[in-house]
Amino acid sequence: MSAEIYKPTNNWKLRKEFFYEQIKNREIIIKNWRNDDIKKIFEILEKPNWAPWLRASAETLEGRAKTFLEGQFLMIEKNGIPLVSLSTNRTFWNGNPNELPSWDEVAGDPPTFENTYQEAGNTLCLMSMNVNPEYQNSGLASLMIDYIINNKMHGTTNIIGSFRPNGFGKYKIEHPETNFSDYCSMTREDGLPIDPWLRTLIRNGMMPICVDPNAMRVEVPIEEFLNFKETYKPNLWREISSGLWECGEVGSWTITDKGIAVYTESNLWGRLL
């Protein structure tokens, strides 16, 4: 099978039926990733999909598998090509939106889940999903979400995520007056979100809960910030006011008077089950 098989179609239900047939025929396999998968996951899935200050290192991926192997998923073709990775953590949530943590708090420090994973937790939290760039916009992310919902772990009553509407980064450069919350509520003529990732989630039954206002925070020395600005999508960087930078990502950078650059971004908490 090649990437050309996965050409997008407007009928997402037909795409899902097609992929389930591939799973039935063992053309596509979903499994828990192991140490010998990590190098491919990092190089083919993680690295191309994340800005350098946000991507998980190979060591972090290995740590997550060591902490919670059953919650680390990998979709591959039968020839071994990685298609989609999904990292989840198991925690406890009482159902109160006001008591939801941030993405960073669920990931923990280090972000290997080793300090936050709860074996008897009632909640599976989707933390990070990556799709092979050659197969994006094809329905594979939807298939992975469907798989997680239909194979609910014993003892879990909630499936939630602090979801990252990745289209916001470029949108706010062209529409600087639009804030994060408003963007998450914007829809197309068909009533679905304008954001591609939120659109996929809504199609899979996601119910928005609330904004995660301080989902991710990264601090780096000013020298490292300048290197990011010069080497990572340099055409997308804009200083919109003194010391405040947009970079084409969901979040923004602030330069402090102590010579530290701070990246912060919001996400959207949503519930799949």
Largest sheet: 10 strands, mixed
Classified in CATH, the superfamily is Gcn5-related N-acetyltransferase (GNAT)
Q: Count the E strands.
A: 10
Low-confidence stretches: 1-10
For the record, the CATH class is Alpha Beta
Please state the structural category: alpha+beta
Number of domains: 1
Counting DSSP H or I runs of 4 or more residues, the number of helices is 9
Strand/helix succession: HEHHEEHEHEHHHEHEEEE
Ends apart, CA distance between termini? 33 Å
Q: What is the CATH topology assignment?
A: Aminopeptidase
Helix share of residues?
25-40%
Whole-number mean pLDDT: 91
What shape does the CA trace take? Answer: globular
CATH architecture designation: 3-Layer(aba) Sandwich
The radius of gyration is: 19 Å
Strand content: 25-35%
Descriptive report:
With 273 residues, the protein is of the alpha+beta class. It has a single domain (3-170, 189-212), classed as Aminopeptidase, CATH 3.40.630. It contains nine helices and ten strands. The chain has helices spanning 12-24, 38-49, 58-67, 103-107, 140-150, 168-174, 180-185, 196-203, 222-231, and strands spanning 28-32, 72-77, 82-91, 123-131, 158-163, 207-221, 238-241, 244-246, 252-255, 260-271. Strands 1, 2, 3, 4, 5, 6, 7, 8, 9 and 10 form a ten-stranded mixed sheet that branches. Helix 5 links the parallel strand 4 and strand 5 (158-163). The two termini are 33 Å apart. The model is unreliable at 1-10 (pLDDT under 50).
